[in-house]
Design a protein that fits this description.
By secondary structure, this protein is mainly α. It is built from nine helices and no strands. Helices cover 74% and strands 0% of the residues. The radius of gyration is 19 Å and the shape is elongated. 30% of the residues are buried.
């Protein structure tokens, strides 16, 4: 079976600038509000109450709702990609094979609670379809996930990982949305990832 070789991997995205504690509290409050009640519920007063900061602090750190939504989405994805990169690096060091990597992905998915902060990005992606100003941030987020997918697929020995990275991200995102909406089991993610990766490996072997 193909194993993830131990190697020094590149970071999937540039290091984000440090975020101040107050700014972080505001961003996380925005994510919770969106996840609980949708984007329409995001007001400066609600944010201040949820974050435990003054109203003036909200307007000082963020000049517009667009900036709030953009930074909240980017912050979530930075934290998620950092966490997943650490898992991918640990898998490489341990020489995890394809089955092990897929099982790990399912365990991570199963252990990720669909709390308000994890529901919020789906709302923000949909909002980007309505508001063109958010599309650049959404594209940056998917780009970060694509780079992480390339890192993992490369370590698993998948040829031309750039070719299927976006498909892998779309698959995971879609199945996570399905799990959120239906409560379907995380095992579906394992099966789907194995089909995708093995299919890519078999295609290369048949050339």
């Amino acid at each position: 079976m193909t194993r993830m070789p131990s190697q020094t991997s590149a970071s999937p995205e540039p290091v984000a600038p440090a975020i101040t504690p107050t700014r972080q509290r505001i961003v996380r409050a925005v994510l919770r509000i969106i996840g609980q009640d949708g984007i329409a519920a995001v007001t400066n007063r609600r944010i201040a109450r949820e974050a435990g900061v003054s109203l003036g602090s909200v307007t000082y750190h963020f000049s517009s709702q667009h900036e709030l939504l953009r930074e909240s989405l980017l912050h979530f994805v930075r934290e998620e990609t950092r966490r997943f990169t650490e898992l991918a690096d640990a898998g490489e060091a341990e020489g995890v094979d394809i089955d092990g990597a897929a099982a790990l992905a399912a365990r991570v998915a199963d252990g990720t609670a669909f709390d308000s902060e994890h529901i919020a990005p789906f709302e923000l992606y949909i909002q980007a379809g309505r508001d063109e100003r958010l599309r650049e941030a959404a594209a940056e987020c998917f780009g970060a996930y694509d780079r992480l997918a390339v890192q993992i697929l490369t370590a698993l020995g998948v040829p031309e990982p750039d070719r299927i990275a976006a498909h892998t991200v779309a698959l995971v995102t879609g199945l996570q949305l399905r799990r959120l909406a239906t409560g379907s089991p995380a095992e579906e993610l394992t099966d789907a990832l194995l089909l995708l990766v093995r299919g890519a490996l078999n295609e290369d072997a048949g050339r």
